[in-house]
Amino acid sequence: MTHLRAAALLFVAVFGALVASVAVGRQYRNSEGNTVSQGVVIESGDAAVSMTNPLPAMSMPFRRLHSAPIRLRTLGPTPKSFPISRPPEATTYRIIIPCDVDVRLLGTMSAGEAVTEDTGVLYLARTEATMGTTKPNFISAMTVGTPTADCTPEMHYGMGGG
């Protein structure tokens, strides 16, 4: 019986070593910088994330600082400029794009400045995003392509969520 037990233990050890040598693993580092098989993934320039929750948690949820949305009404492929009133303490804005085409936005200091196909930030159709603000006085907006229905994105200024 001891020979059978010894043979079983030898088989498990050899099989385990074989699996370990074939398995492709990712290296992880703990907070002390030691390479370990479990811990926090450290990759240059990336935020640390846990192995069980690969998405980093927001530092603080988005909090609106005004009640009425800023509506960028009836956008199309020709740039339009919208005056905005932004609370002075606002650090971020949330934009909701209900359109069936992508939208480009550019924060400007005057109504004469306009977004182009090569400037501003591209927001994908039917998405939302929270971004830091540069504290503009106007938003220049246009669609990338012609929408097949009304395209009126909404913005809210606030804090957090980014």
Q: Describe it for me?
A:
There is one protein chain. This protein has 162 residues and is an alpha+beta fold. Helix content is 13%, strand content 31%. It has one helix and 13 strands, in the order αβββββββββββββ. Strands 5, 6, 8, 11 and 13 form a five-stranded antiparallel beta sheet that branches. The chain has a four-stranded antiparallel beta sheet with strand order 7-12-9-10, with no helix packed on it. A two-stranded antiparallel sheet has the order 1-2. The radius of gyration is 26 Å and the shape is elongated. The termini are far apart. Mean pLDDT is 79; it is low at 21-25 and 38-47.
Q: In a few lines, what is going on in this structure?
A:
The chain has 162 residues and is α+β, with helices and mostly antiparallel strands. The protein contains one helix and 13 strands; from the N terminus they run αβββββββββββββ.
Highlighted features:
162 residues; alpha+beta; five-stranded antiparallel beta sheet; four-stranded antiparallel beta sheet; elongated
Topology:
Blueprint: H1 2-22, E1 28-29, E2 35-36, E3 40-41, E4 49-50, E5 63-64, E6 70-71, E7 80-83, E8 92-97, E9 102-108, E10 121-123, E11 127-132, E12 138-144, E13 154-159
Antiparallel strand pairs: 1-2, 3-4, 5-13, 6-13, 7-12, 8-11, 8-13, 9-10, 9-12
